[in-house]
TrEMBL record:
<keyword id="KW-0949">S-adenosyl-L-methionine</keyword>
<feature type="domain" description="Radical SAM core">
    <location>
        <begin position="11"/>
        <end position="253"/>
    </location>
</feature>
<dbReference type="InterPro" id="IPR058240">
    <property type="entry name" value="rSAM_sf"/>
</dbReference>
<dbReference type="InterPro" id="IPR007197">
    <property type="entry name" value="rSAM"/>
</dbReference>
<dbReference type="GO" id="GO:0051536">
    <property type="term" value="F:iron-sulfur cluster binding"/>
</dbReference>
<keyword id="KW-0408">Iron</keyword>
<keyword id="KW-0479">Metal-binding</keyword>
<dbReference type="Pfam" id="PF04055">
    <property type="entry name" value="Radical_SAM"/>
</dbReference>
<dbReference type="InterPro" id="IPR023404">
    <property type="entry name" value="rSAM_horseshoe"/>
</dbReference>
<keyword id="KW-0411">Iron-sulfur</keyword>
<protein>
    <submittedName>
        <fullName>Radical SAM protein</fullName>
    </submittedName>
</protein>
<dbReference type="InterPro" id="IPR051198">
    <property type="entry name" value="BchE-like"/>
</dbReference>
<dbReference type="GO" id="GO:0003824">
    <property type="term" value="F:catalytic activity"/>
</dbReference>
<dbReference type="InterPro" id="IPR006638">
    <property type="entry name" value="Elp3/MiaA/NifB-like_rSAM"/>
</dbReference>
<dbReference type="GO" id="GO:0046872">
    <property type="term" value="F:metal ion binding"/>
</dbReference>
Length: 327
C-alpha cells in the first residue's frame, strides 16, 4: 500500500504489521504535535484495506501482531472497527493481537459491552497519550482529557482485559516545572500501572501551535538537562503494582541520542545512573534544546534573530514590548 504521511507507532510495535485504516488523526489539535498537521483526516475505504490484506497474504505474510494506523484508530465507530476486524480474521485468522492508538475520549465513547467485544476479538494494547500529570498542562496543550477522566476510562478498559500503554513527555510542563510534573505523573502511573511507558523529550519546532506560545512568552521551554532531571525523578518514583507488576519503561532524548530502557523499579538504578552521567556531562554546557533539526539552527536565537527561549522576566517584558511595536 502507498503510505501517506509519517509512520507513527510505539517502538514496541516495530515488529508488528502496520495496517493503515485511516489517514491522519481524527483529533489533531494537540499544541505540540506536527505528525499529522499537513494531512486531511479521512478513513480509508474498506475495499482499500482489504486489498492491502490480500496483498500481504499473497506475498506469504501471516502476521501474528497487527497495528492499526494512523492516529487514534480506536476512535473509529464500532461498525467500522467490526468490519476491519472481520477482514483481519478473514485473511489472517492466526493473528494473536491487534493494537492501536487511542484517546481517553475515544474510550469514553464506547460502552462496556463494546470494550468487551473488542477484547474478545483480539484487540489488546491501547496506546494513550497521557503526556503530563498536571491538569493545567493538559488543558494548555489542548489534550482532550483531565486526570480524573483518564483514571475512569483506564479502569474501564482494564476491567475487560485491555492493556493500557502510556505515552508521556518530559518537558511538556515547560521551564521550571519538570520536577512538579514528574511527581504528579509518577502518582498517576503508579495508580494505573500501564504495561509500558514511552517517554519522549518534548521536541520544539515552528510548525505547531505551541511555537506561537513560545514567541509570546506563554510557554518557556525547558532545556535538555532539566528534561533529563525530570525523567530521572520520574523513574526514581515509579513503583511496582500490588501484584508485583513491573512496568516496561522506554525513554528517549533523541536530540542527545540518549535512550534509557528497562523494567521499573527493577532496572531503575541502572537507568538513573545513565541519566545522571548524561546530566553531569551537559549541566555546565550552554543550554541545549530539543529542536527539530532544520527548523532553527540556533534555538536560543530564532525567528529572525529575536530571543525566544531563555527569557527571564525583564527579557520577556522587553520582548513583549517589541512585539507590540511590531504589530
Amino acid at each position: 500500500m502507498e503510505y501517506e504521511g509519517r509512520i507513527c507507532r510505539a517502538p514496541m510495535e516495530r515488529a508488528s504489521y502496520m495496517l493503515p485504516v485511516m489517514v491522519g488523526c481524527s483529533y489533531n489539535k494537540c499544541k505540540f504535535c506536527n505528525l499529522f498537521r499537513d494531512l486531511k483526516y479521512r478513513e480509508l475505504p474498506l475495499e482499500q484495506v482489504e486489498e492491502e490484506l490480500q496483498r500481504v497474504k499473497n506475498l506469504g505474510g501471516n502476521p501474528r501482531k497487527i497495528f492499526l494506523g494512523d492516529g487514534n484508530a480506536f476512535g473509529l465507530k464500532m461498525d467500522r472497527l467490526r468490519a476491519i476486524l472481520d477482514l483481519i480474521d478473514k485473511y489472517f485468522p492466526d493473528c494473536q493481537m491487534i493494537n492501536m492508538d487511542a484517546t481517553v475520549t475515544s474510550i469514553r465513547l464506547k460502552s462496556d459491552e463494546e470494550l468487551q467485544e473488542l477484547y474478545d476479538r483480539k484487540v489488546r494494547h491501547l496506546y494513550l497519550g497521557i503526556e503530563s500529570g498536571l491538569d493545567d498542562v493538559l488543558k494548555f496543550m489542548r489534550k482532550e482529557h483531565t486526570q480524573d477522566q483518564a483514571y475512569k476510562e483506564i479502569a474501564r478498559i482494564q476491567r475487560v482485559g485491555l492493556i493500557f500503554d502510556a505515552h508521556v513527555m518530559s518537558g511538556v510542563a515547560g521551564k521550571g516545572r519538570g520536577q512538579e510534573n514528574a511527581i504528579a505523573l509518577a502518582e498517576f502511573l503508579n495508580k494505573t500501572q500501564p504495561d509500558r511507558i514511552v517517554n519522549f523529550s518534548l521536541f520544539l519546532h515552528n510548525q505547531v501551535a505551541l511555537y506561537e506560545d513560545i514567541k509570546s512568552g506563554a510557554f518557556i521551554p525547558a532545556d535538555e538537562v532539566e528534561n533529563m532531571e525530570e525523567e530521572r525523578t520520574l523513574i526514581e518514583l515509579l513503583k511496582e503494582g500490588p501484584d508485583g507488576h513491573q512496568m516496561l519503561y522506554d525513554g528517549f532524548n533523541d536530540f542527545l541520542e540518549l535512550r534509557v530502557k528497562g523494567k521499573v523499579p527493577k532496572d531503575a538504578p541502572r537507568m538513573i545512573e545513565k541519566l545522571t552521567e548524561a546530566i553531569e556531562k551537559y549541566k555546565d554546557e550552554p543550554p541545549i534544546y530539543a529542536y527539530v533539526r532544520g527548523d532553527c539552527p540556533d534555538l536560543s536565537m530564532c525567528d529572525g534573530g529575536r530571543w525566544l527561549w531563555e527569557m527571564d522576566d525583564s527579557k520577556l517584558a522587553q520582548y513583549n514590548e517589541k512585539e507590540k511595536k511590531l504589530s
